[in-house]
Amino acid sequence: MELVGRALAGDRRALGQVLRRVEDRTPEGRAVLRALYPQTGQAHVVGITGAPGSGKSTLVNALALGLRRRGKRVAIVPVDPSSPLSGGAVLGDRIRMQDLSGDPGVFIKSMAAREALGGLAETTGDVITVLDAVGHDVILVETVGVGQAEVDIVREAHTTIVVLVPGLGDDIQAMKAGLLEIADIFVVNKADREGADSVARQLSAMLSLGAPIDRPPPIVRTVATTGEGVDQLLDEVEAHFAYLAASSQLHRLNRRKAERRVLELVRAGLLSRISRALGGSGEFEALVDQVADRKLDPYSAADRLITELLPSR
Amino acid sequence: MELVGRALAGDRRALGQVLRRVEDRTPEGRAVLRALYPQTGQAHVVGITGAPGSGKSTLVNALALGLRRRGKRVAIVPVDPSSPLSGGAVLGDRIRMQDLSGDPGVFIKSMAAREALGGLAETTGDVITVLDAVGHDVILVETVGVGQAEVDIVREAHTTIVVLVPGLGDDIQAMKAGLLEIADIFVVNKADREGADSVARQLSAMLSLGAPIDRPPPIVRTVATTGEGVDQLLDEVEAHFAYLAASSQLHRLNRRKAERRVLELVRAGLLSRISRALGGSGEFEALVDQVADRKLDPYSAADRLITELLPSR
Fold first, then answer.
1. What percent of chain B has pLDDT over 70?
2. Which structural domains are found in chain A, ordered by start?
3. Which residues in chain B have Cβ-Cβ distances shorter than 8 Å to A305?
4. Is A214 touching B (CB cutoff 8 A)?
């Protein structure tokens, strides 16, 4: 735990090592999380999501630079759920390094999906816990893509930015349906391109069609490569956090996050115990053989195992 | 269960109603699955995945038409994991309907993500069970996007086609890392566009860099809009299934699918029982309050609940 002390004191290498233990879910990592948790709750967690090719990485870069100019300590967490097996994207990080390396006020922690029982969203939550505890003011969590995994990750954020871009196809349009409901702020990036007006207009139209909400998400136009609009976006990000804090929403959000966190941990803990119990079980193997041979259906097999594992409920 | 009889006899409306019950996880749906499961195991399940904008829907359409010419009964299952809240894409389905409607040998069943405990992959598995049992020769499962949810869905397939396309950005390139490992066949679609050669070359290069494998995935070029290359793709799809059947791989794959299925059902069953148990629990609520107020860390809260739920393990 001396490592934790050094990480808290600002030692970046120590922080990296702490994060690795947390990600690997070692007993030491778990102990670190227990120790650090009471010191969390200060950081503003901002999720950035959108389709591949929308320029998210460049935008996150620009946001980090802008936040630095505003005197904030920033952490960036690029999460790549698309690569469960081999480790994920590093291209964006290389580019990032060039702009932000050498600035002690910016810490970058990439995350790739693994075959972990607990799942990427949970591990991301743990990483955010550490980055919050060591004193980052803003944590930018960026996800590549727009699937369910990304939605789960975005749920860890206080403020969610959904990035759209002119000139993508029908699939993207269809995605908006789901994205409408998770966005606190919309960004139309590459706003210097043809079609930006049309994207913004469609978005407004879709928003006005939905049920009236307390705070309709603003639509900000940016050109991340030049920094255009980034300051306005940061103003909106700060305004959203102020809104959460002024209403009872921040409290409610934090309680919901706590509830989800505990539930996730209970689930993950139970599942790993159960997997262990089934893994060594001859009965499980025999039932699976019967299912594979179509002699038994999987639903009946599962019911039998469930009754044995939780007989009382 | 009279409905099931009608669905087995080829009544499409009855089949639609059966599938709805299965998706809604009604007790009747569960009974249907138990009854139909022994009759499954005949269909060739083909997964098609790739980035938004790669022309997957058009390609699936073309594959279905090609399979019809080869005398196969075809089911198409477009799965949209990107829209967990509002129901998902319908655009592609409308287009599809125009080409394939009126053909009694093609059945289309769209799926969108829901806030279901069991998850989309599991429900897709159930839908495949029904479509297999009623006698479809080939089931084309198409997913929009390339996240973890899609990878889970693709695992239900015997043969996985990954669709790439010229002219997408760095995010896409990075994705390939994960996709390399799940693809049985690569398609470079829109092969008449500039850059198709380069995509195919990069792909070959990445494949040759990896560990040597038993059957390196072939790379097929298609222009889905004109049907070019689709016949060759179908030959590769059939060749892959023949390869699985001739080696012991098909048996192993089926056993692995059965194992995953039973495990998923056990997990889902346990989780729903546990959620019910915790939902009514004052202790759970009190612990969550303490966690939200940073008086207790979520890890300790979860450990306490786990010990109570599964005291013996």
1. 83
2. 1-38 (no CATH), 40-246 (3.40.50.300), 263-309 (no CATH)
3. 262, 266
4. no
